[in-house]
Amino acid sequence: MKFSENWLRHHVPTRASRDELAATLTAIGLEVEDVAPLGDSLDGVIVARIVNAKKHPEADRLQVCDVDTGNGIVQIVCGAPNARAGLVAPLATVGANLPGGIAIKAAKLRGVESFGMLCSAKELGVDPDASGLLELPDDAPIGTPLATYLGLPDASIEIKLTPNRADCFSVRGIAFDVAAALGSEVIPLDTTPVPAQSDATMNVVLDAGARVPRFAGRVIDNVNANVKTPVWMAERLRRSGLRPISFLVDVTQYVMLELGQPMHAFDKDKLEGEIVVRPARTGEPLALLDGRTVELDDDFLVVSDSQGGRGARAVALGGIMGGSDTRVTDDTRNVFLEAAHWIPSAIIGRSRKLGMHTDAGHRFERGVDPQLPGIAVEYATRLILDIAGGVPGPLLDVTLPEHLQSPKPILLRRARLARVLGLTVADAEVVRIFTALGMKVEALADGWSVTAPSRRFDIEREEDLIEEVARIHGYENIPTHTPAGALTLAAEPEARLNELAVREQLAARDYYEAVNLAFIGNDVLQRWGMTEQLVPLANPLSADLAVMRPSLLPGLIVALSHNRARQQERVRLFELGRTFHIGEAAVARKDAPTETPTLAIVACGAAQAEQWGETARPLDFYDLKGDLDALIAWGGEPQRWTVHADSLPGWLHPGRSARVARDGHTVGYLGALHPQLAKALDLGPDVHVLELALDPLLDRRLPKAQAVPRFPAVRRDIAVDVPEQVSWSQIEHAVRGSLGTALVALRLFDRYSGKGVEAGRKSLAMGLILQDASRTLTDDDADRCVRNAVAALEVSCEAKLRG
């Protein structure tokens, strides 16, 4: 929310300096993000008129102007493109010092004397526009100090509002907080009804139920739409971040900023029949003020008229933007003012759905005072009549009383207030705070009954009232007490690794940790083929953050891609986070989605960092599998883990990837990205990924003490010929299953394929380390173990013993 400092002071008189005002706003929860001083050093700058302008004899881009200062004519050399006879503009006279340290002196420019400088808005420090001279209205009084005429000095203050403080999206809303904090009072708003001077009106039908419970309006005939927006109004709009457009539009913007009620002005002559507020129809088109034509659905609300039938034509998008067909123009003579109350749930997310953001939608999404529409129409009517004339009709205020709720009294207990704040606030101070905030207070024996104004949606319970007292009384006045109590240290479970250990292990293996948002876009997931069991957000921040992530990999790959685009060829990232899924049964039962702690790794480029000790080679599947093996070994029991080249998801390369299982249950995948996906993501073929559930990885074997073996181990080496598609994990599983506890280690020490081995098969040589805790194994024992292992391999792996 941006506003003019002088505008705020107009509503709440205070002697506080600008710095004190900014500090107070921040202290009471309205955080000041920026204070831009305007026109602080304008002594010697006056309103002047160019009487005559002729080309400079020695410079094509300069003009020699005769300028009326109200006290005579002076000669000014000016290079502004809009300098012309009759223009009223600011003149910095000789001796003036402009913002930025510019001192004005008499000078000669290309041989022609100049006694001052005609100024742009930027040179005066009142606006960033430097395209030409600041053009003032023709009726501006010549010779008047510019600061007096423009209401300067001033400052444009921008505050950051939390979503619960929708009432502060207006100057008057902020004024109540400032009055309470600085011990002042808000000047009452003139709400005297404007008497009707005609019977002109429009019939309004509310056909959207609780979503639009109030609609106020008024017809004003014979308005002079060509009247210039007064300087005081235009400047307040400009200093609040809005550009003046035309008077009728500016009035609605001005009322929105001052009172907080968005409004719209229709050209009444372009409306037909009655006004109907209704849900939009699916596929219904609407031409908006921004020049776009959008197609709506029944999730939107519209204001419609009777062109083509009752409620047939949509003329405005409810709570967001007006339509271009019925907008006011310079030719408008008869106006229909509209101010409605749209509840937040009817507006939230609709603007983003159309890829737009409007001030009206921003306010209605957070909540607007339901009592404001009639007041806003009366206030805007008075401004229009005072400035542009016209004949007003009666105020139209259509309501659905059953859907309008009045604030209810809330009990604030004196003892509860003291207990929560840790100090006693005087009764008079409590009453003063609530009264200054516009609340009704009734004293009770044990506290107060407080009724918040209708604009304060955030006041719902006793704790909210306590917060108001703390906020205005001053957080700095609340004593600080060190909490007392014994803290118990939680014991780390021995059977589970800490996540920090995983992070340290990966960092030691040359990976960098990444942290991504838990939201992702539907379009990204479509590319990955991740379209099932998704958890969509009801009110996403943007279309790129519309779904809870079902996997960590898409986000990590985006981070990898950003690094690749910045000349980082070797990228190694990991992330520990939660993924989210929801099944059909959970949807039917309205259960919460399943959250799974997950580890993901992405890597590309060279296997080793650039060096001279080893020949450079690209990263491959086995490098990533080695990292996985290191993590598994960290927790112990590697024999419970297996890697299979089957049942792969579509985003993995079918020939360079594998499924990871623990105790036979799939826990993740690793390998190269599928070539089609890598091409779609504009990545090279060298990107490898790993993703698996974190909990199985964190489980570890408890250390157990056992005696050192008294009897020697026996080793037997065998070589078997197996099909190429048989994995080592299948072979290991078969051998361990056949030998049981007699096998203490199994070591693969050779792999061969080529001459002497059938095509499609491979030869694996392995060492069987055998040992018995109760005796020394004999040759017969060792030979029997070899026979059992070979037999198991022949059955389960189609193996042949090689001689």
Number of structural units classed as domains: 6
Distance between termini? 85 Å
For the residues shown, what is the average pLDDT?
A: 92
Major beta sheet summary: 7 strands, mixed
- Helix content range of the residues, please? 25-40%
| CATH homology superfamily name of the largest domain | Phenylalanyl-trna Synthetase, Chain B, domain 3
Classification by helices and strands: alpha+beta
Second CATH tier, the architecture of the largest domain: 3-Layer(bba) Sandwich
Would you count the extended β strands for me? 41
Point out poorly predicted stretches: none
How would you explain this protein's 3D organization?
It is elongated and about 125 Å long. The model has no long low-confidence stretch (mean pLDDT 92). It has six domains: 2-39 and 155-182, Phenylalanyl-tRNA Synthetase, Chain B, domain 1 (2-Layer Sandwich), CATH 3.30.56; 45-152, OB fold (Dihydrolipoamide Acetyltransferase, E2P); 204-403, Phenylalanyl-trna Synthetase, Chain B, domain 3 (Phenylalanyl-tRNA Synthetase, Chain B, domain 3); 410-475, 2-Layer Sandwich (Phenylalanyl-tRNA Synthetase, Chain B, domain 1); 499-698, BirA Bifunctional Protein, domain 2 (2-Layer Sandwich); 714-801, Ferrodoxin-fold anticodon-binding domain (Alpha-Beta Plaits, 2-Layer Sandwich), CATH 3.30.70.380. The strands form eleven sheets. The chain has a seven-stranded mixed β-sheet. Helices cover 27% and strands 27% of the residues. Helix 6 (231-239) packs across helix 7 (247-259). By secondary structure, it is of the alpha+beta class. A hairpin with an 8-residue loop joins strand 39 (743-752) and strand 40 (761-770).
